[in-house]
C-alpha cells in the first residue's frame, strides 16, 4: 500500500507534517515514518523567535539546521514557521518593551533585523514562510499584540516587504486559525490582504491552520474561502491540521474527526491554489493538544503506538 506522499504526488499538493526535532533525534520510528509519509515538513518550534535568538544579538539555528538537513536528505520541502507572532517571543524582547529599554524605533529595527537574519540564514532552503502569524481577533479586528501596540498596523506590510527582500524565492504566507471557513476573521484577513496586494505588498499565500475540534461544526465553505484568496493572486494551504476530541472519544467523535480531516483535505484538493496540506504532528505521542487543551487529545492521524487510525484511512482514501 502506498504512503501519503506517494498518493499525493499526482495531485500536485504536498502533504506535510510539523516536526518535533527532539523526537526526530530520539525516536527512530518517528523519523522513519515522517520521511516515508510526508514530502513537506514544518518545524513545530525551532524556527520561532525564542529559540533562534535566545539572547539579544545571539542567534542559534542549531536545531533548525538539523531539521533542514533532514528535509534535504529526504527530498522534502520546508515550510518556515514563523517570523512575526505575538507568542513564543524571547524574554529579553518582551521585557525590554515592557520596561521601555526597547522603544518603538528600536523595536522596528529589531524586527527588521530578525527577518533579515533568519530568512537570510535559510535563504534558498525554505519553500514557503509563514511571515505573519495570527494577527487577527475572532471579530476581525487586529490582535492587540506587542507588534500592533508598538508599531501600528503597518507592521504587517513592513514584514512582508522585508521578507521578500531577504529571500525573494520563498512564498510568503499570512497564516491564522479559525480562518478555514468564511467568517468575520477570514473576511478581515481577505480585506487586508487584498488591500496590501493592491499596494504591491508581497503577500503571496494564505494559510489556514486547521486546528479543529469535534465539539464544533465544520468550517463554512472552506473551498470558496480559499478561492476568494486565489482570485486576488494568492496560493493557499492548510498548514497545521489536527482535529481534537474531548476524551474519552466516542465512536461518533472519531467519525467526526475523520470528517474534519476529510473536509479540509478535500477543500484543498478541489481548489487549484492550494499547494500543501500539513498536519500539526502525525502521532498522538507528541501532540501539543493535551498540554494546551486539558481533557482533549487523540487529534492526529496515528495513535501513540504509531498505529494508523481511521483518520489516516480517510486521508489515504481522499488523496
Ligand atoms: C505550538 C506547538 O505545537 C507547541 O509545541 C508549543 O508549545 C506552542 O506552539 N498555532 C501555531 C503553532 O501557529 O506555532 C502552535 O504550535 C500551535 C498553534
Automatic annotation (TrEMBL):
- InterPro entries given in the database record: GH, GH10, GH10_dom, TAT_signal
Q: Which SMART domains does the record associate with it?
A: Glyco_10
Reaction(s) the record says it catalyses: Endohydrolysis of (1->4)-beta-D-xylosidic linkages in xylans
GH10 domain location: 1-318
Tell me which Gene Ontology terms the entry assigns under biological process: xylan catabolic process
Q: Which GO terms describe its molecular function?
A: endo-1,4-beta-xylanase activity
The enzyme class is hydrolase
Q: What is its EC number?
A: 3.2.1.8
Q: Which UniProt keywords apply?
A: Carbohydrate metabolism, Glycosidase, Hydrolase, Polysaccharide degradation, Signal, Xylan degradation
The family note in this entry says: Belongs to the glycosyl hydrolase 10 (cellulase F) family.
What PANTHER family would the database entry show? Answer: BETA-XYLANASE, GLYCOSYL HYDROLASE
| Stated name of the protein | Beta-xylanase
